[in-house]
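Annex B. Sample input.
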Amino acid sequence: MTKKVFLVSHSKFAEGIKGAVEMIAGKQDNLHAFCLMENNSPNKLIEKIRDEIAEEDQVILLADITGGSMYNEAMSLLVLPNVRVIGGMNLSLLLNIVLADNISDNEMDKMIQDARDGITRAQLQKTIQLDDFFI
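Annex B, continued. Sample output.
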């Protein structure tokens, strides 16, 4: 079984995040970016992806926005039993997916939760100085 990961996005986001993954993890032959530009349609991009899917592939498709046009069109690929679609990609999630082998549904759900948990708002913490106790 060959794992194939497809990224779909508005504008060049998919190419950018693919580049970030390859900067960190090296060239990834199983990672493909498809960018929706003004002169194209979501349907045409998803047709190109469908042409690259074989029965023996494990296919994971990540879209930039859950409910966006690329995500909605990608849902049509779910009729294929070897395709999973995820909306709302980020670099942490994508790295975990690219670097893992034969991902089960439970493992994928954990990766998604870990990616959610990794989204935080940074805050400065006041450190207590010894002088604070002796005023």
